[in-house]
Request: fold
Amino acid sequence: MDNHSSLPWKIGAKAPTLILTAYDEGVAVATPHGRKTPLRIEITLANAAYIVQACNAFPDLVKALEDTISASERAIGDHIAPEHCYATGPKTGDALADLVECPACIAAKVNQEARAILAKAKAGA
Ligand SMILES: [Zn+2]
Reply:
């Protein structure tokens, strides 16, 4: 996935459905196609803009998510549920007391989900 054209990409000035590289003017990176009805042309233009926006933002979003996960894991530390849960402590068996969610457990679960999303995004899925 690292062999793609240099970012940032942009919409072609003369042919707005062409996605051009900023460093290689005139060379199309990708061209979304649609039928030539007014609605289809509008959708095709929106697709081209979305592809450019998403691709240009992807590296920074991945880095930001990796940094956020890393910082969150440092903040959580060695949190072993339920012994280390500072919101609930060990489960009490009391239905009301056990409703309080541990923020560290929530963060650990969110981090796990975020890592799965990152792996999927990096694999191009
Ligand atoms: Zn916890």
Notes: The beta strands are 9-11, 19-21, 28-30. The mean pLDDT is 82. Residues 79, 81, 85, 102, 104-105 surround zinc ion (CB under 6 Å).
